[in-house]
Amino acid sequence: MSLMLLAGVSIAATVVFWNRILEWVQDSLLPWFHTNLPSLAPYVEGAFVALDHLVVSAKRAAFAAWNYIRSFLLKATVYFEKRSSGWLRRTISYVRRSLEPNAPVYKKTEEQEVPYEELPGDIREQMLRSGRNSPAIDATRARDEEFIRMGMVHG
Q1: Residue in 27, 50, 17 with CA at minimum distance from that of residue 151
Q2: Is 70 exposed, middle or buried (0-12, 13-18, 19+ CB in 10 A)?
Q3: What's the order of all strands across the beta sheet hosting 86-96?
Q4: Nearest partner of 99 among 54, 67, 131, judged by Cα
Q5: pLDDT grade, residue 60 (50/70/90)?
């Protein structure tokens, strides 16, 4: 499980920072190969071209999926509450079941007990710095901002 989590985090970080990675490849890595190992340079270039196709496809697919979800999900907020037995993660979502103009909006609440180690790092940091025991995350805004940072905007 830990290896799968590490792989997932690595892939996510690669996707998020792909533009910076490519800048480094173009500014440093490829020139180094062209100077020091010119026979391998075309293979390194080809590998990054293939990776670029995969990363861009993954970003587009994730963005399309998020846009589809966002058309139904109006807002989702995740609250964390300290309990005597651990932590409660409460997610409150406001969703509509259809895209009709007057479609009713439903409030959905999900609760799950989680150990401290599974709380998001920014939440643990916020609690340690401020002493608050009931922090919250606006999950829809956080995801929207993540796509904006990747240069993708809702259309």
Answers
A1: 17
A2: middle
A3: 105-114, 86-96, 73-83, 136-138
A4: 67
A5: confident
pLDDT digits (tens, 9 = 90+) for 66-75: 889 888 999 9
The pLDDT value given to residue 1: 43
Q: In angstroms, rounded to a whole number, what is the distance separating the alpha carbons of residues 99 and 74?
A: 11
Q: Are 124 and 133 in contact (CB under 8 A)?
A: no
Residue 49: count other Cβ atoms within 10 Å of its Cβ. Answer: 9
SS (H, E, C) the chain: CHHHHHHHHHHHHHHHCHHHHHHHHHHHHHHHHHHHCCCCHHHHHHHHHHHHHHHHHHHHHHHHHHHHHHHHEEEEEEEEEEECCEEEEEEEEEEECCCCCCCCEEEEEEEEEECHHHCCHHHHHHHHHHCCCCCEEEHHHHHHHHHHHCCCCCC
pLDDT digits (tens, 9 = 90+) for 7-55: 555 566 666 678 888 899 999 999 999 999 999 999 999 999 999 998 8
- Kindly state the tokens that stand for 105: 């909006």
* Beta-bridge partner residues of 79: 90, 136
